[in-house]
Structures are given as structure tokens and as C-alpha cells.
């Protein structure tokens, strides 16, 4: 052996010895950690697809309690768990652990929940102590089931039925002889209106997105038009709009009364559901054997709630097949006709085209998986106007703003449910109607077995109110209180369950709101948990509560409460409490639905292909609210959005047809439900285009009206700035008239917050987050350019690069900084300023439009940036109700300048003065500069002091866009 060879062998032996020593030196915890990491890195689940390979995030040992806790990342929760699979996971993990840990108790946690709790049938041991329903549980089909929903909800509220309502409403004062609000006018609203703005756009959709069937005893549809198509003639429709078909046999008259409308008003005791007939047909397992078609003639395009009605017979099917055709899309529902016959049954709210065609109708077939009878009665489109006459007069208000007493009559409730005071006290009747309608529907179900009724398995009721009271210093928050009633009927509900269940519910609501509002806004006040005798918590025969969300008399409460972001927080808090409470009552685990995706964008990858991208929005309070997949909703041209496509991951490639505009929005989903949608992004592929234009949505603002808050005055100045609601709102009653802080606590004229009624009954459009549609359509009309779009968030995050595009169209709408909003908004945030500066310095071409482009850039650095890169300076603000329109590019045109229900209004816009070599490109009718254009050798810009999408006429928008693009791209 040579010396070198001996040294080599010696080194090898030494290395082997040292490796063995290191291995022996590993602690048992280190060995366990290594084995577990290896297990998860190689983990595969049959039939499941992971966006990323699951990993272990952490591993901890509690030697005292002999417990091993393993926490995985969110990807591990993407699989569909079964009892068998969970058992295998625990056995393999146990096997991978060295002693003594293999003898310890093991728990595996993903997204804050034990993996065994992901199994749909699993009963949570942790929540078992609160399972007060015991063996009482409804196991049949839901009253209404959206069969087109692309997700499977197992840990939310699927097949759970809830009754909830916004407080009060317009009513007839029998003593004074006129219609009035039940609560005073304060800070531009009244409780009768304010609570609806939490319940209708936020809370009800959240519960429905979690799978719940939600009944509300007040009309929910903010639509003044109403069409009823019926075999007995209908309302605002003709006989030809109702059509029956049967391949064999014919539709017959059902044995019980049905709906029939008459023109004019309805007086006390009249029940439209006892005035007509219904139809019936033997069910068939085959499709297209028989149907009824309901096809109204819509006087205007818009959103309409769809309600169906039918009769519940002893042999009714539990899966009657309805299809709603809306703007060319079809959404299918299965309705359980074994319950809820003889009233309006809500399916959903849809966009319908103007006119009369088969692409906008409802069809009921006789197809069913079971033997029995399908019945057909009237179908109603739209909420309509109040038609109940009291004291010789109707309210002249939309039905949705009236109290429950009047909706109950229109919905076929018996007189005992809404007229117990004999027609002499509508105020008291209205308060009691909300609960009595709940009992009428739920009677005969497993949850209310001692009452006769419609057998709808409603298991919870909630009344959402705001309260009186104020902080004398004008600065403190009054906050929330909750109410339950336990001392009634020997402390028991109809099912025998203790009324303490209601108190538990009320306490959880109050604690949840206090926690969530404090987390989000750093201050909130928990008032009281009352156990008192209130009608809305005494009468319901299911667990019930009243939540007084905040004080409508205290301006610090309302300054927060009127912010749509705060309404979302309040609603999400109540939704989270409801879903947790209902599941815990049955001993089940809960998963909270995710928040909406952010940073959404769509970019062309080929002439017939786009890539849609987005980011998950984390919920810092809710570990389970992690998305496991996403839903992409698509609309083409002017058609409606489809029912969605389920995808994994945060991007998807979509096939498109060149020459057609496409619009997309994305939701996040998990086993608990579905989020609200993202903002809309749009795309257009032009067959011969050589240039691509990027449309950026930078209008995200949601806000209260202008806040006045000092030592002498408090309130909302709607004339100075009406704020921005989330979509449509019905929440404003009139302009505040008294701002005098010294009149705090006084009600009526001369009291702080008092105002008028001139806005009552008027719906006002807000931010629809879909303005890329109007801009993309306008650009596409030129037939020269490709169009893609994104959120400004995606630009600021660096996910979309401006430099890729020959021109940029930045939508700013009503975006501006406001120190009174709970979120930060600004037309040109610093990160956007940097990216636009770089883009223009590189020779970019840019179009910007918005109402506050100049006003929001008055700080010295902002003004300098605006002058340098937009070639504009702020020249003042125009109150647009004094204008008649705009002149520019050889055209005269108008834009939405006053509050209306169709499109948000630019009630104030900016005068923009040209800087440097820029020119005035448009003028308001007052002669002031409305737009600035710059065509330099370095870059080109066109900046408008009003929002482009607010231009009322589509043809004008298209021509203007073509002219602007010719200017900046020539």
C-alpha cells in the first residue's frame, strides 16, 4: 500500500466515523422533524391536485401532556379528506416518529383546524359541549339549492335556513293618519334605511355564499319595477308571457288556491295567494317532457330579484327544476316543493336585458329524480313599489323600504301573522310580523314541531338594529349591545331546547363585533348583553337575538358606520358568529369563507388566449379563511356572467375568440363558502392589431359623505361630497340640515343631525368595480388595438409592467384621499407616481380620467409631479349640477352629474389647466378647461378632469376614445 492510498483510506474511515457520530448526535426531536419533513415533501393524495407540494410548517412537542402537534401549510388542506384517509395519515405520521413520540397523542393542524375536522361528517369534540340541538337536525334537501354553483360547501351553512331582517321600515301611523318612518331622521338617514345597507348588500350575500337559505320578512330587492307572470294573468305582463308545454298529457289545476294579482291597491285582509289557481304535472325522470315558461317584457335593462311560487302537496317533489335565463346565461335551481308552498320563494338576483326574449326568462320543468307532482304558480321579477293601502293611501315608496307587515300580506301570510291588532296598530303589528312570519314558515319543521306552518327548517332568527344614545363629549363611541329573551314559555323553545341558546347566540354576536371592530379600527365599545322581554326575541320559536350594531344618534358611531368598509366588517363579524353558532349547535366544525382576491389582471398570451392572474387576500383573524381554490366568472360582449369555473392556483389560461370582448371576475373559495368577487378585468383581441393598450382600474374608493366634525358642528355634507357606496344603496333619506353640536340629543327639527326626506325612496349608484368594461368596449370599437386590463394594485405590486404596452388608460373615477375613510385611497399613490414617471420617460402614451385628478394632487410634491408628467395643474373644482355638459374633440356630450340609480355620478369635477406645451382639449359648458392634452417628442398624455366612464351615451364614449387614441398613438 502506498502512503497516498493509505491516507485516502484513512480519511474515508474518519469521514464515515464522523458521519455516524453526527447521526448519533441528532436528538430525537431533530430526527422526528427530519422524518416528518420527508413525509410531507413526498405526500400524495389519490384524486387530489395540489397547487404546490404540501409542507410541514412547524412541529412541537409537549412532553408533560405527551402531545405532538404538527402544523402544515395551506396546501395540505386542498385535498378532500375522508375518515379513512385521515386515519391513514395519522398512522403513517405515527410510524414516521421515533420513540417516545410515536407513543404520544398526535394532532395535525392545517389552516388552524385539525385535519379530522375537515371530514364533512365529523363531529367536533371541541364543540360537542355546545351541541344543544342534540339529535334534532334537518337532513332533507334545502328549500332552495343553486345547482349551478361550482363549489361543494361542507363546513359552512349548506342546507341551513336562517331568518333575519333589517329593522323597521316605512309604516302607516293609524293615529296620525299618514305614512312615516319608525325612527327619526338623523345624519342623512334613519334606522329604517341604515340597517338595510348592512343587511342587503353585505350580510345576506355572505350567508348565501356560505350555502345558507336566507328568508327576510322585508322585501330585499332594491328594484322599483315589478313583473309577475302567472297562469291567472299576472301583473305588468300579458297572457302570452306565460306558456305551458307537455309532450304527453297536460298541466292540470292544483287542488289548492294559488296566486292571482289584481290591478290597483290591496286592502287589509286581502290575500293574493288565495285569489287564484296553481298548476300541476306528474314528475318525470326524463328532461324536456313538460315545462312552464315565464317570459316577462322588461321595460328597462337592470337587476331583478326572481321569486317563484307553487303549492306544497302530499306528493310534491323535493327537487323541482327551475332555470333562470339571464342575459344569455342559464342558472339552475332545485326547489324543495314539499315545503314553503303558497308564498314567494327567492331564487336569486340577476341582470336582465330590456325587452322580451327567451334569453331572459324562467322555466320550470317536471323533471325530478323522484316520483310525485311538480306544481307551478306565479313567478315574480323585481321588488316593485308598495301596493298595500292603509287609511285610503299607499306609501308611494319602494316595497323594500316598507315594514314587514306589508310584505307579509303580499307574500300570502295569514292575517294572524301581520294583523293581530285588527288593523288598528300597524306599528305594533310590524314589530310582531317579523317573528310571526318566521314561525309561520318554520311551523311543522323539526325545529318548530308544535306549530302549524310551511315546514321550512328555519333554525335561527336575527334582528339587525341600530340604537339611540350619544356620548356627551361628541367623541366617544357608543357601540353595540345584544338582546335575548330566556324568561318565556318556561324557558323553552318549541323544540324543547333551552332558551339559553338564544342568550349564547346574543353573547357571541356582541363579543364578535367588539373583537372584530376593535381589531380593524382600534376602538369600539361593548355596551350590554340584555336578557329582556322584546318581541323579536320572545316570539320566534327558534334561537333568536337582536343586535344593536351602533348608535344612529351618535355621530362618532355613524362616521364609522356609514363607511361601506365598516359595514362589511360588521356584516362579516355577524356572518362568522352565525356560521360558528349554527355549526356548534350541531357539534360540527366551521371553516370561514375567504376574502376576495386582489391584484387581479388579464394579459394576452396569444391571439386566442389570455392569462388571468390574482393574489389571495389573507384574513389575519381567521386561519381557516384560506382559499383552497378559486372561481372564475366570465361574460362576453354585453351578455351576463356565467356560473363560474373552478380552478386551482392563482392564475389560469383562458381561451377567447378574437373580435369579442371578455370580462372576468374571480372569487376565492373553500369548504366554508365563497368570497365576494374581485373587481372586473376585461380583454379584447383584435385580429390585425399591432398595439396593445392596458386599461388600469384605479377606482377602489368606498366612503361616507363629506364629514363635518369640529367643536361646533358635526354631520355629513352630502352636497359637498355624497360619498361612494358599494354598488347601489337605498340608505339616504335626505340632506342633513342641523349641524349644531349644542343641539346634541334633541330629536326633530333643530336637533343635531336632523335632515330632510328628499332622497328617501331614491336608490343611488356607487362603485360597481367594473369600469374596465366601458373602457375596453370603447377601445375595442376602434378595431385597431388589443386590450388587456388590471387592478392598479397589480401595477403597484409590480405584477404588471407598464413598459409592455404601447398605451395605458388609467381609470380614477372618484378616487381621492380622504382623512375620514378607514382605508387609504389616493389618485396617484407614490408607487404609482414612480411607475408612471418611468413609463412616460420611456416614451409612453397615457390617458387618465377622474373627478379628482387635480384636487387630490395639491401638496407641493404631488403638484410638481402632476405638472411634470401629466402636464396639468389644478384649476379649481366644479359643482357639476350647474353644467350642461362638455365640449371637446368636435362633440358636445353630457356625463352623469346628479345622483341616480344607474351609474355613479361625478357631482364635482376638476378644472385642469395645461402646463408647458400642453393644450386645453375639452371644456365644460361653463368654459373652464375639462381636459389637458400633451403631444411632446418625449411622450404623450391626455388627462381628463371628469371620469370617462360617466359619459352617458355609449356611442359618444366610443367616438371620444377613438379620437383620444388617435391623438396619443399617432
Structural class: alpha+beta
Spatial strand arrangement across the major sheet: 30-27-26-37-34-38-39-46-45-44-41-42
As residue ranges, the low-confidence spans are 1-24
Classify the oligomer. single chain
| Portion of residues within helices | 10-25%
Number of helices: 17
Number of strands: 46
Major sheet: 12 strands, mixed
Overall pLDDT confidence:
95
Cα gyration radius (Å): 31 Å
What form results from the Cα inertia axes?
globular
Question: How much strand?
Answer: 25-35%
N-to-C CA distance: 85 Å
Blueprint (SSEs and pairs):
Blueprint lengths: L2 H23 L2 H14 L14 E7 L4 E6 L10 H14 L8 E6 L2 E2 L29 E3 L14 E6 L4 E3 L4 E3 L10 H4 L1 H14 L3 E3 L11 E3 L12 E5 L5 E7 L17 E7 L7 E5 L7 E7 L11 E7 L2 E7 L9 E8 L8 E5 L7 E4 L2 E3 L22 H7 L4 H4 L7 H17 L15 E10 L12 E5 L15 H22 L4 E6 L3 H4 L5 E8 L3 H7 L2 H22 L12 E9 L2 E7 L13 E8 L8 E3 L3 E5 L5 E10 L2 E2 L6 E4 L6 E7 L8 E4 L4 E4 L54 H9 L4 E7 H5 L10 E7 L16 H12 L3 E6 L9 H10 L2 E8 L6 E3 L2 E3 L14 E7 L4 E6 L4 E7 L4 E5 L9 H16 L1
Parallel strand pairs: 2-3, 6-9, 6-22, 22-25, 23-24, 34-37, 34-38, 38-39, 39-46
Antiparallel strand pairs: 1-2, 3-4, 5-17, 7-8, 10-21, 11-14, 12-13, 13-20, 14-19, 15-18, 15-21, 16-17, 16-19, 23-25, 26-27, 26-37, 27-30, 28-29, 28-31, 31-32, 31-33, 35-36, 40-43, 41-42, 41-44, 44-45, 45-46
